[in-house]
């Protein structure tokens, strides 16, 4: 299906009608000519307290279908005129088996990467970033990580070493496996109370640059984004956006809500200024509709995913200008 046909099909019926895909994009596993594949990862066995992020992909898709329009007001164009984007569906998972689920996720997303498309993944808890990184790094090598989160997710283990794979250990495992290059990576928005193993110095000891939420607020969107560009340079980038980087007042539907986080205008101001980065993979994680209010977290997440698609479209448009 051509881009023009995709756009036309989305306008033939009410937004509330039809099968629910992201922004009513076609659901297909045919990757011929595809630039971006939206893929759900309905896995939340890496969470500890407020489990329910397995329902995140469905909630994000539902709100995108109802409330998102296709023209980007700020950038002044329709990204789907530039990119061929499809909804690839969901990866298989086995909730009781974390490492087996990781293998299934990696195996399901790998064909997207091998086809030359960018996987744009909807979590799921943050543990899913590890198998997604495995799929992307298998083709591109160690990636620069741009990580928005209230938490650094670099704890070595929990429960006396018994738990090494969950949503709080994901990026330490990614460094150990050589999936990301911390010397070209940055973590933004860190906020809230911490356990030992979660201090900024511990990320910095691994090689990450850390901009806690207070520093992000001090710099503002323009200088924060400039710091990201300076850090990653021209490297292949993996963007991971945990919705709990947002203040709990605007994103209550998440597994580890924090007070004092970013507000939408701040987050959008930073994200939009990331245009030009060479994204090889993107995920948005930790949306938990079981704890949401008036779907506000899912609506925010859907809008952020549209912003990510627009960033990818800007890069392709500018490359072909």
What is this structure, in a nutshell?
This protein has 321 residues and is α/β, with parallel strands linked by helices.
Question: What is this structure's SSE topology?
Answer:
Elements: H1 3-10, E1 36-41, H2 56-67, E2 85-90, H3 98-114, E3 118-123, H4 129-140, E4 144-148, H5 170-176, E5 186-188, H6 200-206, E6 209-211, H7 213-232, E7 236-242, H8 264-272, E8 278-285, H9 296-319
Parallel strand pairs: 1-2, 1-3, 3-8, 4-5, 4-7, 5-6, 7-8
Explain this structure:
The protein is of the alpha/beta class. The chain has a single domain (37-53, 91-298), classed as Ureohydrolase domain (Arginase, Chain A, 3-Layer(aba) Sandwich). The protein is built from nine helices and eight strands. It has helices spanning 3-10, 56-67, 98-114, 129-140, 170-176, 200-206, 213-232, 264-272, 296-319; strands spanning 36-41, 85-90, 118-123, 144-148, 186-188, 209-211, 236-242, 278-285. It has an eight-stranded parallel sheet, with helices on both faces. Helix 2 (56-67) links the parallel strand 1 (36-41) and strand 2 (85-90). Helix 3 (98-114) packs parallel to helix 4, helix 7 (213-232) runs parallel beside helix 8 (264-272) and helix 8 (264-272) packs parallel to helix 9 (296-319). The two termini are 24 Å apart. The model has no long low-confidence stretch (mean pLDDT 94).
């Amino acid at each position: 299906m051509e881009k023009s046909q995709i756009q036309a099909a989305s306008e033939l019926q009410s937004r509330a009608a039809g099968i629910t895909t992201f922004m009513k994009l076609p659901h297909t596993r045919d990757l011929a000519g595809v630039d971006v594949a939206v893929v759900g990862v309905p896995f939340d066995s890496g969470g500890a307290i407020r489990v329910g992020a397995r329902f995140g992909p469905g909630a994000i898709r539902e709100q995108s279908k109802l409330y998102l329009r296709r023209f980007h007001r700020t950038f002044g164009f329709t990204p789907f005129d530039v990119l061929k984007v499809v909804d690839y569906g969901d990866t298989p998972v086995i909730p009781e088996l974390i490492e087996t689920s990781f293998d299934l996720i990696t195996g399901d997303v790998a064909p997207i990467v091998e086809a030359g498309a960018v996987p744009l993944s909807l979590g799921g808890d943050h543990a899913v970033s590890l198998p997604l990184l495995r799929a992307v790094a298998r083709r591109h090598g160690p990636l620069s990580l741009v990580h928005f989160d209230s938490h650094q997710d670099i704890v070595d283990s929990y429960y006396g070493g018994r738990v090494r794979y969950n949503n709080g250990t994901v990026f330490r495992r990614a460094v150990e496996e050589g999936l990301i290059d911390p010397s070209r990576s940055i973590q933004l928005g860190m906020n809230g109370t911490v356990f030992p193993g979660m201090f900024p110095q511990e990320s910095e000891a691994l090689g990450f640059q850390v901009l806690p939420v207070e520093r992000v607020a001090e710099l503002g969107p323009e200088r924060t984004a400039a710091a990201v560009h300076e850090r990653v340079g021209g490297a292949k980038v993996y963007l991971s956006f945990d919705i709990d980087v947002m203040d709990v007042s605007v994103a209550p539907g998440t597994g580890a809500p924090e007070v004092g986080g970013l507000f939408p205008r701040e987050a959008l101001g930073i994200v939009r200024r990331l245009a030009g980065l060479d994204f090889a993979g993107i995920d948005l994680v930790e949306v938990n509709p079981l704890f949401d209010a008036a779907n506000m977290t899912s609506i925010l997440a859907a809008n952020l995913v549209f912003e990510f698609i627009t960033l990818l479209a800007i890069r392709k448009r500018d490359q072909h200008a």
